Every structure is written in structure tokens, then in C-alpha cells.
Amino acid sequence: MKRFLLAVALAGLAGAVVAADAPGLPVTKAPAGAEVYIISPKDGAIVGTEVTVQFGLKGMGVAPAGVKKEGTGHHHLLVDVKDLPAAGQPIPKDEQHLHFGNGQTETTLKLAPGKHTLQLELADENHIPFEPAVVSKPVTITVK
After folding, report:
1. What does the alpha-carbon distance between residue 60 and residue 71 come to, in Å, rounded to a whole number?
2. 62 lies in a domain?
3. Is residue 117 domain-resident?
């Protein structure tokens, strides 16, 4: 039994080493001049606990996640995120990294009172950020 557990532990360690050395997924090049931005709310806005966020995009089109079409991507809304997701890795999916893989261009959020930052990042069909990153300026809002 001890040999079996040792073999399992060593196999797991070897797999972790291989995964750490594995290259990232292929990165899609962004078209020159591509730009993503938040249409509303405006930076400095005071809003209620339910706020509609409208996404803007120039120089590219929107396509659902999983659809490979040159010059397109889909939106991710970063809520109160201090550091952008890692280049060459899929954008996480959690309460701070919201995915809009169906090609949505707006959403309504319910936020707690206080200051919040909103930022958009466009990603390819595999949720991988473009190179260079197509990311908006952060927008700071106050929820009353």
C-alpha cells in the first residue's frame, strides 16, 4: 500500500512539473487600432445598486466564445480587479471576472454600496486575451 501511495504521489509531482513547463495556449494577435471601452456608466458616476454597463468596441467585431472568426472576440468585465489577467492564459471566471461568451454587449450588475472599478477586456474564442491586450480604461463608480 505504501508503494502504491508513493507511486501516486510521484506521478502527481511529475505531472505538476510537466504542466509548469508547458507553454501557454496560442495567443491571437489584435488588429491594429482595436479598442474596447465602457459606454456607460461614465467614470465618476454615482449609481444605484443596480447599474447597467454598456460595452463599446472599435476596430473589431463581437463573436461568441468558441467561434473562431478573424478580427472578432468577446467581452469580459473585470469588477474591482487590480491586476489584469495573465497574458496567454484564459481569463478566470468568477465574481470579479464576468464572461460574456454569447456576444453580449451590455449587462446589469447588482453591486454593494461603495466605490467600484469596472474594466473591459476582449478575448478570443478560447477566453485568451489578445496580444497586445484589448482592454479599456478603468471606470470608477460610486454605488449609493
Report:
1. 5
2. yes
3. yes
Cell 463599446 belongs to 56
Q: What is the DSSP string of 80-133?
A: S-SSPPPTTSPPP-SSSEEE-TT---EEEEE--SEEEEEEEEEE-TTSPBPBS-
Cα–Cα distance list, 91 to 80, 111, 117 (Å):
15, 21, 17
Q: How far apart are CA 46 and CA 50, in angstroms?
A: 11
Residue 72 lies in a domain: yes
Q: Which domain holds residue 109?
A: 35-143
Could you list the pLDDT tens digit for every one of the 144 residues in the chain? 433 333 333 333 333 333 333 356 689 999 999 999 999 999 999 999 999 999 999 999 999 999 999 999 999 999 999 999 998 999 999 999 999 999 999 999 999 999 999 999 999 999 999 999 999 999 999 999
Domain count, the chain: 1
In a domain, 131, yes or no: yes
| Domain CATH number, residue 136 | 2.60.40.10
Question: How far does CA 28 lie from the centroid of its chain?
Answer: 14
